[in-house]
# Entry
Amino acid sequence: MNSGTFLSVMVGVGLSAACGFRVFVPLLVMSIASLSGHLTLSPGFEWIASYPALLAFAVATVLEIAGYYIPWVDHLLDVVATPAAVIAGIVATASTVTGMSPFLRWSLAVIAGGGIAVSVQAVTALTRLASTAATAGLGNPGVATVEAGGSIALSVLAIAIPFLAAMIAVAMVALLFWPGQKLLRKLRSKPDNETDKP
# Structure
């Protein structure tokens, strides 16, 4: 893998993680970056660099961000956003990875792009549920603001400093699985402890 291909993979990974926060923000940033010449798209994805796509992503971004500030609509969006984030993560990775065969590019897009996007989306959904339980939904606008800001920052970072954005994405996924592994170990050890009791 040459340096250009490696860099494009880092861009895709960073953008995929941003899709987990907000589905359309990274696509909008990609459209702006490709139209301004700061992002090279893979063959077949030139449509992202079109003005109709830019307009569609801009409108979708505004509606998505606004929806997360409406009580209960935010939870409905979380349900819809999970499969949408996977698709967006796959598209973000597949459209930015260059210098790779179509088979390898799409395999990487599905595994890394879709996997990272759904992992980050799972964290945001769980955070919103915790916020709703703790604050009766009053804290959710704050969570929504952090998520939107995170998506914008990570999207821009993925184009400007791809390696750093990819490291942040990997760290977020690791933080998701670390508590999950601890919980699994607790659940597995519980029956053993119970059988030891007289």
Notes: Residues 193-198 have pLDDT under 50 and may be disordered. The radius of gyration is 19 Å. The chain has one domain: 3-196. The chain is about 80% helix and 0% strand.
